[in-house]
Every structure is written in C-alpha cells, then in structure tokens.
C-alpha cells in the first residue's frame, strides 16, 4: 500500500486558533438539543435532496460548516436566483443565503413544527424561480426520533445547549480542516445528514489485493454508541479487535464497529480551551498513526 508524502504542516504543527471553550453544558446533557437539530437539518437540506441530481457519494445531501455564520450550509440550488439554505445552530433557525453568503430570508424554528418549515422553504424556492412543489421530505434514509409538529414543536429554550453544539461543530471543523490540510489523500470536511457527523475521509490507497483502504476522521454529536459528542478515527476495513495498540488519548471502540474514540466528557475534563484543543489534536494524530501502523503490520 502506498501513500503520497505529506506536503503541508502536520496536525501537531498546526495551531487550532479558533477553538471555543467547551463544557458550559455537559456533553451528556445535549441529547435533546442534538435530536432537535438533527431534524432541523433534514429540512435545511430538503431542497438539495429534492432538486439536485444524486451524487454517487451522496455529497449532494451534505453540509459544510460556516464559521462566520455559525451554520451548517447545504449545497447550492441552481435556480434563476441561486441560493443555499443554512441551519444556524445557536439560533435554531433556517436562513436562505445568496452565493456570497448574504442572508435573504430567515425562519426561526422555535415554536414551529416541520410542516411550517417545509412550507416556508417551498415558498422561498418558488420565489427564487425554482420548483417549490418538488421540495419534499422524501429521502433514502431515516433518522431517529419523531419530527417536530404543531403539538411538539422545536424548542430553543434558553439556547445554552444549542450554543454548546455550535461550539462542538465549529471546533471540529477547525480541527478537521487542519488535519485535512496535512493529508494529501483527505477529502473535503463535510457534515452528513444521516448520522449527523462532520468528517473527512482519507484515501489510504489499496493493498496488494487491490482492496481500497480509508480512514474516516470526524466528530459525532452523539448517537446510539455514545450519548454525547465524540471524536473518532475509523479505519476501513476494520482491523482485528484483538490486536489494537494502546492510545495516547481515548480508547478503542469494538462493538459493532472498530475505531478510536475520544468522548466529549474526556475533552471537557481538560478545562482550558488550549488544553482541550491539544488533547483533541493529540488524539487524532496518535490514532491515525496507530491505524497506519496496524495496516503496515498486516501487509
């Protein structure tokens, strides 16, 4: 298996200057806000899923993080008046942007159900010259929980949990962009609406038998495996679970999938922002190195 030489600075050499302090809300107390946000994301990318040609890698469904807006931004809709839809995490609001990221319209989700949000998006799509009637919630995957409705609408509350989730996504984006810049085989940093993780996928080449190897590096905001945000380094194909080396930070997950994990609680325990950033950086660098050592040993 061969890889191109790294040409950019290593992750350890890159300083994550945009790191926001984490821990104002405990990582284990974010599940409700995360679930609401996950359902909001399904509306935010409804126009993209409904109107764009499907991409082989499903990237037409994905978001990028905008640090300036504190938002997950969906793909461009090529209407006569082109636009993108953003989900502003801290505010729990949908915002329509022009191609210069200037806001054109805004829909706060607090107090509304999904039908209200979809109707607003359909109306805006029509106003932009697109086919608003084609914008639906039909998609090729399902997510956990029940979508907000008139009886159980989105609730922003005091906003603290959503501010904390915005910090998690923003920090992860900064970390992953620094990592991807040091890795010639790394793909774009994207947030995926199915599992709601933000990640980059590194092409590690093929083995002697021609099998492709990849390493996913990302942040999940929490899921069935861990009820809190966590960083992960996920090799594929999976290495043998009985041959995993010790890690400088975090642990190996072995149930259902194999990968290195650093939980949000562990990151928050390093209370100072610089210490949190260093711990996250150390985890990613060490876990990626461990994965590559395992691959080399198995050749």
From TrEMBL:
Superkingdom classification of source: Bacteria
Q: What is this protein called?
A: Uncharacterized protein
